[in-house]
Amino acid sequence: MPLLRPSAVAARGGRTRIVIAMNDAKPAAQPRRLERHVVLVEPEIHWNTGNIGRTCLAADACLHLIRPLGFSLESNKVKRAGLDYWEQVNLRVWESFDALAEGLAPLDAEVALFAKAGARSFWCMPSKPRMFLVFGSETRGLPRALLDRYAASTYHIPITDRTRSLNLSTAAGIVLYESLRHAPPPHAWGATI
User: Whole-angstrom Cα distance, residue 13 to residue 16?
Assistant: First the structure.
């Protein structure tokens, strides 16, 4: 069905007249759906992983955990941190990052590593339709081999010198939502200002 669009506005005798013209323009395309993968390499703290799982669920992202883990996934503490959402989290556990890379075949341009010493600010990360946002463990960070492998794709979140780092779950939330900024997911709880 043709769309009706205002094509001209004319003022006459103090009244505004809107002229409607028909055209055969197609409706606007649906916003593209971005595929996001949050990858935790050897996470150690169950609370962080549970919180990140809940954030991934809220943003429709997949959570990947690279072994070894510093906790059991069966732990009530992990489930408590993810609240009653934990069973709904799109979760995959891998024996190594190489296994993830082989299984999902991310392009180098789709991988972004986050570390305190990352080369560029996270505001500079690309916005690709599919992205793998990779974070290291809470105490050791990312393995040197992984940082070297993706040296051109390392990013940091700016912080002052008054703290060593941000909490892992905070950092993952900041980065995940920044990566969605150009094509945000729908908000299920109604419009806001």
Answer: 8
Q: What share of the chain is helix, strand, coil (3-state, %, to 5)?
A: 30, 25, 40
- Chain-wide mean pLDDT for the chain? 85
- Judge whether 172 lies within some domain: yes
Give the burial class of 188: count Cβ atoms within 10 A of its Cβ; 0-12 exposed, 13-18 middle, 19 or more buried: exposed
Handedness of CA 177, 179, 182, 187 (dihedral sign): negative
In a domain, 186, yes or no: no
For 144, the domain range is 35-179
Claim: this prediction has a pTM higher than 0.85: no
Q: 175 lies in a domain? A: yes
**What pLDDT digit, counting tens, does each position of 56-85 carry?**
999 999 999 999 999 888 777 766 766 678
- 141, part of any domain: yes
Q: Quick one: pLDDT at residue 190?
A: 72
CATH number, domain containing residue 109: 3.40.1280.10
Residues 6+ apart with CB under 8 A from 158: 121
Number of domains in the chain: 1
Residue 52's nearest CA partner among 165, 172, 150 is 172
Taking the C-alpha atoms of residue 106 and residue 101, their distance in angstroms, rounded to an integer, is: 6
